[in-house]
Design a protein that fits this description.
globular, three-stranded antiparallel sheet, 157 residues, single chain
Length: 157
């Protein structure tokens, strides 16, 4: 399986992310989903540390993209500055084969395709100075016990 990495990004610090080591998670002896190891190295003080390794599944990336879209829309509504509006790249979608045959989602070819697309998405995020240190990005890249629902409740308080 592929082993993608990113060169550090220079903003007010460095941020380097790589996605690797996919693992298939089984439920009742059948493959259920794939998790990916995300390794982060940073000098941004907002992260509260310099190195993080977390596992995330595709739906977690969907959550991050949705939250970042909301943050972009909120900032744009406040400023009305066209520079504040940007469109996030899409996440890698299912192929026709993986859409119709769930077991195809666990093939090496599909997992490599997905890693590449997820890496492209995170590269875009970390290359943007606002998105790189957004609270959702930091939570996604650092939380050892990732719980989207708990995070939503906690951030609304």
């Amino acid at each position: 399986m592929s082993n993608q990495s990113v060169n550090p990004t220079q903003i007010d610090g460095t941020l380097s992310i790589s996605i690797r080591d996919p693992e298939v998670v089984f439920k009742i002896d059948k493959p259920d989903h794939v998790t990916y190891l995300i390794q982060t190295e940073t000098t941004f003080p907002e992260f509260g540390g310099q190195e993080f390794s977390v596992r995330r599944r595709y739906t977690d990336f969907v959550w991050l993209r949705d939250e970042l879209e909301k943050a972009i829309e909120h900032k744009y509504r406040q400023t009305r500055d066209p520079a504040d509006f940007r469109e996030l790249p899409p996440l890698p979608a299912d192929t026709w084969k993986s859409f119709f045959y769930k077991e195809a989602r666990f093939s090496e070819e599909f997992v490599d395709y997905r890693i590449s697309g997820l890496q492209e998405f995170l590269d875009y995020v970390i290359d943007d100075s606002d998105l790189a240190i957004d609270k959702h990005t930091i939570y996604f890249l650092t939380a050892s016990h990732f719980d989207k629902d708990h995070y939503a409740e906690k951030s609304q308080v």
